User: Which sequence fits this backbone?
């Protein structure tokens, strides 16, 4: 890729999840050049790993497809994957940003034919499925990856296997000499759409994640339910592949807890309700218990909550469980006190899902940049004095998809304002 | 005879295409059947060398329509972009060699037809001439001068855009003007913030780019994005303005407390709403010591508002904190069902707990005239009378101002059809409608009867489909509220703030900025004659040949975006800048007189007819699939990507939207001998996914009508099916095809074959 200096009318968007993608297409269609950088090999971010969206239970790839088409047809957009932001210098209207690239070992002329994956022998943990299954060391991140281009895992570089992979490529797209690199661009404004990561469930020690079999988190549940997930959409327990019919959801696993995430992560209630719907779709006789403090189904999402509340096989238990242990039968057992009935319970399940919250993943990206953050690490929005540093999506707070798009569209405007301001100087 | 001039065929033999099919045979078809002057083969068409070769052919002027027979049009899009050329793609990889056995006769026949269809498409496609007639305005009209409208006006001005701000009351500031403090949207999140509205009013009034009209309503809006003509009534006079786009920020009104008699409203002057308390707080000290807040007063209640109003929990907490701050002896009780302080607003909840506010989970059973509130306390499991209160505050919810309630409800005229306004998307009693829901089938949801909304239209649109903005059953505007929340069904008109969805001020401020971005973007695109979302940048638009038009009105009625009006002689007239290029009008027209420069019923039929239809003795049925380009077509691609083999008897044509498919395409295909036809689109109904809102629903309706036609032709109804698939249905889509082909096998060949 060239080191071409871009104009101050260019907007840099950092992060290729739903917020970054939305900010990119909205700004570009408003007539601005946009550079979108994403640190992983594909755009799509967390939403690409979701099975369905609440409350319509529609597939995230549907909206992504439209946005990818908008990107593909718009020459004002440049996308760099496996690229992250190094240093940022300058001021609103005139930033110089150094971008660091990681080697993909596959060039842009890759046709995604898949011959390299056929030649690869070793397997790596599949990042798309949160390591719940394996993928070849030469892999396409997933069927809806954008760009649709393979990646070679660094672990095989230097081995005879790598040479075999290279030899399998008929269009000479494998570049085993690919190295880390960096280049500079000039931009007028920067949108930080660096997204989130699931809160580490292992930190909530009493819930046994990683210790007790068949205790998983909510992002893993998404993959279990997805047709392109590790189980081809069958919701089964990881330990023995048994159908997960009796399932517990533990809300606020980490959220609304001053020892972990003091804020509410907003999406986890609807997430678990959606998961309950997945289970009800798959197993007519599923029995679901949702342990909650408050069910936060704001605005129109209330309708989705009401539907599930009316389902006799979905039970809502007001309680913050005390612990999750391995029961005598080996099943995970949820223990605690029902806040309403005061009953002490110990209920065992096929599967327990921790509705873990979101924390901003912006710690790495842009760490050299002095962004104003709140005590939780979210970038504080700068409303009335547009400057060239703008946060979008979950980088700015715990938001759902619709709100991320809203925030990203607003960020696109703020970037345009910053450029207008720069030009006025 | 069609025009082969300007067509160049480029065949790729890479990605196993050359090993699976005979590419030379394709070359032969291009030369012999189509007399295409240029046909070249390359082993890696997307490589630099081949791309340069095509670019040279285009640059030399010989090739205007390169037909690229290689991978799916969804990939290598940027590689195969050539200035001044209309690129046509034939999907030989994902939909031929990756999902059918190599070296097989049927695979080759499919590839041959794939090329025939692409060349036919090229012959029927002309370079679109964009519509850019008349003067365009860059100005944005903002309707509503409350917090969101003020914010929108300032946001637009900061981006260098002129704004006309119209407010129906005699002053700016809306609901928030009368408040003392507001919910915080920046740290510290636990402390109510000063009201920003006075500052915003001053900024708007001092902004040279913003002109403000108060006491004004939009009496009429005609035209289209870039060229809206708005009539504004101000006092007795009416003025006319040209604007490019409209941001609707008409906000909300509190739910009518008179409907909350069961919560004591009206029984005592000390039962007040949260809005009334705001005004009391702003006016000065509220001398009350024991105050109970009743949450969800009207919200989350099927008899009142089905939705959660999102802000009332935070607002009651803010009120409690304000009362306690003014007088530390105040006892505040918040009676709630679910306490909702999402995101960082949790800090506010915690601050209230620290300040001693008492939160009670339970249902309110009654509120007496003596202010005794009986709570069915969920934790205690018994009814608790709260006595000694000196004020009860009803946390009433938000009703969107989707109409102007000061104006009379518009009556339907005689002969006038109900405009497509409401979609009953919310039915809180219906079971979960998940695709493939197992066990007992959910009962059919009875649709609410559609009625004209209460109040007058906000913009009084002079659109054939009526003056209102299409809205959902809950009163909020119809949109793809998850992925594309701003896209209303009236192009260039962007509702935002609590009009769009109940939201707090932090979010509403962002929403104003987002809507302004969309307004600026639309103006820019329509100036170039380009479409806005989802076919952003599409330069074509529907053209109607009036000669054959029978004035049937199907196009004007079925357009999901109200883009087609009627002349005084009842002929349809397209407003190109309102159009989103789905082609629903084209599919609706019974006399095929609506077409795009590069897309038409004739094109689709010609493509279908260009395929070789073997006679019945060959025992090779043919099934035509008309596939929505956004969901079904990618699903078929992904079936290829995962090498999921399915019947090679299908011929797939991507369509802008299933709504653009005419019943005539189906009967034409049957008449040339196709044995079956699949209309493959996305999910319709309450949770519709169609990005043109009604496309797949229209297809189903048309497929149902076709059943009658089939019966009259003595054909089995199984021959035509409308299928709903989702984009990630790679596995399922193959199964659906195989099952359909098996059904066709059972019922036998189309008797019209060969006639």
Assistant:
């Amino acid at each position: 890729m060239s080191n071409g200096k871009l104009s101050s009318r260019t907007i840099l968007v950092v992060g290729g999840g739903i917020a970054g993608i939305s900010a990119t297409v909205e700004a570009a269609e408003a007539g601005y050049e946009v550079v979108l950088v994403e640190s992983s090999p594909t755009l799509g971010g967390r939403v690409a790993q979701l099975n369905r969206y609440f409350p319509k239970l529609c597939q995230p790839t549907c909206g992504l497809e439209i946005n990818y088409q908008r990107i593909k047809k718009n020459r004002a957009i440049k996308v760099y994957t496996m690229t992250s932001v190094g240093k940022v210098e300058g001021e609103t209207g005139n930033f110089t940003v150094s971008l660091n690239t990681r080697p993909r070992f596959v060039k842009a002329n890759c046709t995604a034919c898949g011959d390299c994956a056929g030649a690869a022998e070793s397997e790596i943990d599949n990042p798309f499925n949160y390591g719940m299954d394996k993928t070849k060391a030469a892999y396409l991140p997933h069927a809806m990856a954008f760009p649709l281009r393979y990646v070679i895992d660094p672990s095989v570089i230097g081995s005879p296997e790598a040479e075999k992979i290279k030899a399998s490529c008929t269009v000479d797209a494998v570049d085993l000499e690919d190295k880390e690199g960096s280049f500079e661009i000039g931009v007028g404004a920067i949108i930080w759409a660096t997204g989130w990561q699931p809160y580490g469930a292992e930190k909530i020690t009493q819930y046994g994640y990683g210790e007790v079999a068949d205790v998983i988190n909510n992002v893993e549940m998404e993959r279990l339910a997805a047709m392109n997930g590790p189980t081809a959409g069958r919701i089964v327990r990881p330990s023995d592949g048994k159908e997960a019919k009796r399932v517990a959801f533990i809300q606020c696993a980490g959220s609304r807890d001053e020892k972990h995430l003091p804020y509410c992560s907003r999406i986890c209630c609807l997430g678990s309700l959606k998961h309950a719907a997945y289970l009800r779709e798959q197993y007519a006789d599923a029995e679901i218990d949702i342990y909650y403090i408050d069910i936060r189904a704001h605005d129109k999402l209330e309708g989705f909550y009401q539907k599930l509340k009316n389902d006799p096989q979905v039970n809502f238990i007001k309680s913050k469980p005390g612990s999750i242990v391995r029961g005598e039968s080996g099943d995970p057992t949820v223990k605690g006190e029902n806040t309403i009935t005061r009953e002490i319970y110990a209920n065992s399940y096929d599967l327990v899902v921790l509705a873990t919250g979101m924390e901003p993943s912006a710690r790495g990206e842009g760490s050299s940049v002095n962004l104003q953050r709140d005590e939780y690490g979210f970038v504080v929005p700068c409303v009335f004095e547009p400057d060239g540093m703008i946060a979008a999506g979950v980088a700015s707070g715990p938001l759902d998809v619709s709100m991320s798009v809203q925030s990203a569209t607003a960020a696109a405007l703020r970037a345009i304002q910053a450029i207008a301001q720069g030009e006025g100087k | 005879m069609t025009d082969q001039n300007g067509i160049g065929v480029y065949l790729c033999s890479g990605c196993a295409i050359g090993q699976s099919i005979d590419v030379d045979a394709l070359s032969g078809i291009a030369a012999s059947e189509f007399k295409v002057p240029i046909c070249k083969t390359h082993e890696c068409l997307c490589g630099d060398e081949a791309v340069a070769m095509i670019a040279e052919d285009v640059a030399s002027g010989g090739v205007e329509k390169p037909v690229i027979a290689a991978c799916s049009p969804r990939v290598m899009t940027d590689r195969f972009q050539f200035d001044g050329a209309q690129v046509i793609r034939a999907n030989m990889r994902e939909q031929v060699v990756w999902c059918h056995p190599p070296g097989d006769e049927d695979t080759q026949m499919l590839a041959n037809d794939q090329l025939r269809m692409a060349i036919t498409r090229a012959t029927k496609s002309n370079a679109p001439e964009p519509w850019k007639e008349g003067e365009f305005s860059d100005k944005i009209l903002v309707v509503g001068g409350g917090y969101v409208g003020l914010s929108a006006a300032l946001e637009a001005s900061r981006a260098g855009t002129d704004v006309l701000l119209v407010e129906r009351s005699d002053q700016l500031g809306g609901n928030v003007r009368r408040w003392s403090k507001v919910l915080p949207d920046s740290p510290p999140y636990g402390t109510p913030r000063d009201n920003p509205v006075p500052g915003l009013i001053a900024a708007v009034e001092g902004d040279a780019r913003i002109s403000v009209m108060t006491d004004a309503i939009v009496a009429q809006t005609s035209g289209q994005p870039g060229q809206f003509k708005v009539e504004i009534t101000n006092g007795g006079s009416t003025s006319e303005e040209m604007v490019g786009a409209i941001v609707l920020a008409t906000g909300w009104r509190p739910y009518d407390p008179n409907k909350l008699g069961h919560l004591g409203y009206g029984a005592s002057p000390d039962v007040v709403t949260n809005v009334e308390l705001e005004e009391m707080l702003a006016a000065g000290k509220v001398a009350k010591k024991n105050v109970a807040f009743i949450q969800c007063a009207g919200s989350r209640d099927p008899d009142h508002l089905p939705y959660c109003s999102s802000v009332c929990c935070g607002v009651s907490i803010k009120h409690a904190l304000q009362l306690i701050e003014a007088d530390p002896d105040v006892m505040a009780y918040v009676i709630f069902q679910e306490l909702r302080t999402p995101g960082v607003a949790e800090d506010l909840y915690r601050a209230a707990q620290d300040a001693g506010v008492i939160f009670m989970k339970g249902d309110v059973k009654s509120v007496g005239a003596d202010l005794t509130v009986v709570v069915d306390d969920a934790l205690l499991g018994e009814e608790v009378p709260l006595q000694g209160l000196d004020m009860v505050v009803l946390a009433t919810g938000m009703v969107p101002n989707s109409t102007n309630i000061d104006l009379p409800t518009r009556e339907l005229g005689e002969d006038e059809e109900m405009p497509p306004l409401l979609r009953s998307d919310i039915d809180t009693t219906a079971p979960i409608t998940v695709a493939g829901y197992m066990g007992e089938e959910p009962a059919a949801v009875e649709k609410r009867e559609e009625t004209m909304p209460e109040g007058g239209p906000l913009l009084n649109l002079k659109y054939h489909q009526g003056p209102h903005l299409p809205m959902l059953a809950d009163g909020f505007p119809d949109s793809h509220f998850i992925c594309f929340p701003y896209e209303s069904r009236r192009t260039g008109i962007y509702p935002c703030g609590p009009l769009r969805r109940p939201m707090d001020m932090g979010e509403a401020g962002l929403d104003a900025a987002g809507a302004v971005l969309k307004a600026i973007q639309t103006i820019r695109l329509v100036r170039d004659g380009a479409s806005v979302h989802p076919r952003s940048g599409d330069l074509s638009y529907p053209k109607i040949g009036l000669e054959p038009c029978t004035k049937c009105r199907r196009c004007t009625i079925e357009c999901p975006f109200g883009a087609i009006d009627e002349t005084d002689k009842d002929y349809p007239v397209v407003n190109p800048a309102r159009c989103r290029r789905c082609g629903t009008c084209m599919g609706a027209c019974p006399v095929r007189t609506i077409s795009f420069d590069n897309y038409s019923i004739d094109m689709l039929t010609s493509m279908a007819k260009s395929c070789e239809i073997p006679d019945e003795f060959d025992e090779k049925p043919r099934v035509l699939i008309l596939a929505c380009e956004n969901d079904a077509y990618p699903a078929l691609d992904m079936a290829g990507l995962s090498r999921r083999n399915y019947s090679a008897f299908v011929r797939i044509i991507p369509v802008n939207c299933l709504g653009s498919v005419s019943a005539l395409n189906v009967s034409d295909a049957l008449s040339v001998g196709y044995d079956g036809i699949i209309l493959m689109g996305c999910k319709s109904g309450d949770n519709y996914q169609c990005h043109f809102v009604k496309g797949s629903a229209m297809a189903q309706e048309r497929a149902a009508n076709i059943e009658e036609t089939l019966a009259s032709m003595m054909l089995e109804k199984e021959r035509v099916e409308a299928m709903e698939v989702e984009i990630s249905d790679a596995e399922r889509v193959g199964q659906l095809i195989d099952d359909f082909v098996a059904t066709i096998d059972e019922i036998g060949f189309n008797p019209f074959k060969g006639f």
Summary: Chain B has five domains: 1-127, 140-251+401-431+454-527, 254-397, 543-584, 599-755. Residues 457 and 567 of chain B are 22 Å apart (CA to CA). Chain B touches chain A through 108 residues (CB under 8 Å).
